[in-house]
Amino acid sequence: MKYNKKLLIAHTFLASILVGCGGAPLISTPIENIDTSPLKVAELTKAEKENWGHLDLEKDTIPGMGVDRAYAEVINGKKGKKVIVAVIDSGIDIDHEDLNGVIWTNEDEIPNNGKDDDNNGYVDDIHGWNFLGKAYNEQLEYVRLIASGNTNSPRYAEAEKLHTEEYNTWLGRKTQYDQIYQQLLSNDEILSNHLGKKDYTKEDVNGINSTDQKVQGAVQFAKFIYSNGIDSMADAKKELADALESINDQLNYNLNKDFKGRKTGDNPDDFNDNPGYGDGNVKPVKKSESHGTHVAGIIAAERNNGKGANGVANNVEIMSIRAVPNGDEYDKDVAKAIRYAVDNGATIINGSFGKSFSPHSDWVREAIKYAADKDVLIVHAAGNDSKDIDVEPNFPADNINGKEVADNYISVGALAPKYGSGMVAGFSNYGDKNVDVFAPGAQVYSTTPENEYDTKGGTSMAAPAVAGVAALIRSYYPKLSAVQVKNVILDSGLPLTTKVVVGGDAENVQPFSNLSKSGRIVNAFNALIMASKL
């Protein structure tokens, strides 16, 4: 659907006069002076950092989605309908203490009997489906193109050039990070020995008064680490170790032309080959496979249970669909995953993945259209390449050469937690044609495997925030169609024109309104008020 900016005026006027049913009137956030919101000078508290996406720009001067305000002022006392949200991602820890009460169960399937009891084509799909089987690591799509030897492909030369550039870049990063990590370990050992303990603090380091040059050098190194926003040397070691793991994964798997990752016994270039491939085990294959669990928690971690984080939506069941490896997903898996979600009762699908090459993009577009025909909303991450995706393509996409194939698709860019010029996350893609709206995506706290919690950033985190808002709307106003829910989310957001740094480039400063179709940030409070009167 072509987004008509003229409709914004009408919808904004409508929102400003809507009232709740009974009691005091509910008035949506006034937008006339929203761009003059005060900048939050003080550092965010721990509680604010772990919940900033649920806070409110008007009330808290933090560019969250007004979720807490929506629960307090709009949802309070209302009863909603259960909504199934499919998460197409890596595996999800369905036993997590903050998720185990919100996981979808296929009641028509008898667990572990080796039969397809509900005749949906998938055996023992109790909580969803695993299209990856036992695989985890994968090549990038353009590396698969090179490995295929298909020199007739119109993008083959581009892929080879890109591979040379990327491989050399990551090889250089490995050398650099290895050196920094060794320096970190060496200085950490010096400080540990000097202080007589391994778990020393920033205050311990600041209190060191030594004439030993090695100790002085280690103190200086530690203070440099602290100046970069890292609270301890232990945290620095973890971050660097994680970074090195990611770099090695790039070199050993993602960019390795000889690596064979697929283990499902099907031909990924034949859509109809080996139907029912994969298995029903939707859990991560190892603890570091945490992306899907983090995404699921943003949508639906159990609220107010005294554990970890609150999800955006209550009344949600998460359908886990494991289709995104550590590398690029296959178009076949994505298209099958969308169709599985639709056919098994999901009314919202979250996709936090993407790539710049897509040999079977038509399969995915057909699946998006299939979802639209069945009234299912798809919310997707815009991507983390700091690029204008109106110019450089990012897949999956709901359009062919700019023409949309369906109107059930929301593409989401990412916000950072501080209102002002740095409000757009530096990694976030943007585009006033192919990105619909922005939502909290940087420094988001959520669930990770084995009953743990962590902070992650990406448009991967912004998309499930919006999927959560969509779930709230579909729960409390179930008569609204997927298209209406999409329009409510876009039209009820806060329109900002303030100038922001784009793509993390301080030389690229633009009005925020230029970066998406709507020029808005998602606001759950406004969305529920608007939905109540449609």
What does this structure look like?
A hairpin with a 3-residue loop joins strand 10 and strand 11 (452-456). Helix 6 (156-195) packs antiparallel against helix 9 (233-254) and helix 13 runs parallel beside helix 15 (524-532). This protein is an alpha/beta fold. The protein has helices spanning 6-17, 46-49, 57-60, 67-75, 141-148, 156-195, 202-206, 213-227, 233-254, 291-300, 331-343, 361-373, 459-476, 482-492, 524-532, and strands spanning 83-89, 128-130, 316-322, 348-351, 377-381, 399-400, 403-404, 409-415, 437-440, 444-448, 452-456, 494-495, 499-502, 505-511, 520-521. The strands form 5 sheets. Strands 2-3-1-4-5-8-9 form a 7-stranded parallel β-sheet, with helices on both faces. Strands 6-7 form a two-stranded antiparallel sheet. A two-stranded antiparallel ribbon has the order 10-11. It has 15 helices and 15 strands. It has 2 domains: 6-25 and 56-136 and 265-532, Peptidase S8/S53 domain (Rossmann fold); 156-254, no CATH class. It is globular. Residues 1-21 form the signal peptide.
